[in-house]
Design a protein that fits this description.
elongated, 3 helices
């Protein structure tokens, strides 16, 4: 923030679903651009995720690919939302 405040600017790199992916607000001149490289799919070998996917298929007929794609798009929207906060943002 100091670099932006004195006019030098800054570049911030982060990984979706990482520690800094949640709870940081880059409104106004602190965030002007988001570049997403790749699709932030979940790690599919997790036992917790495998159980959740089995439940969704059994109880709600939601296929694995549908859930994983929806979740990745939700995560992408979350990342973009770090800089796009209002109609006055860049």
């Amino acid at each position: 923030k100091r670099a932006c405040n004195i006019g030098r600017g800054a570049i911030f790199f982060s990984i979706a679903r990482g520690k800094v992916a949640e709870g940081i607000d880059f409104k106004g001149h602190y965030g002007r651009c988001v570049v997403c490289i790749g699709v932030p799919y979940q790690y599919t070998q997790s036992h917790v995720l495998r159980t959740r996917l089995e439940y969704l298929l059994t109880k709600h007929q939601i296929r694995e690919a549908d859930f994983l794609t929806f979740d990745a798009m939700r995560q992408t929207a979350q990342c973009i939302g770090r800089v796009i906060r209002s109609k006055k943002d860049y």
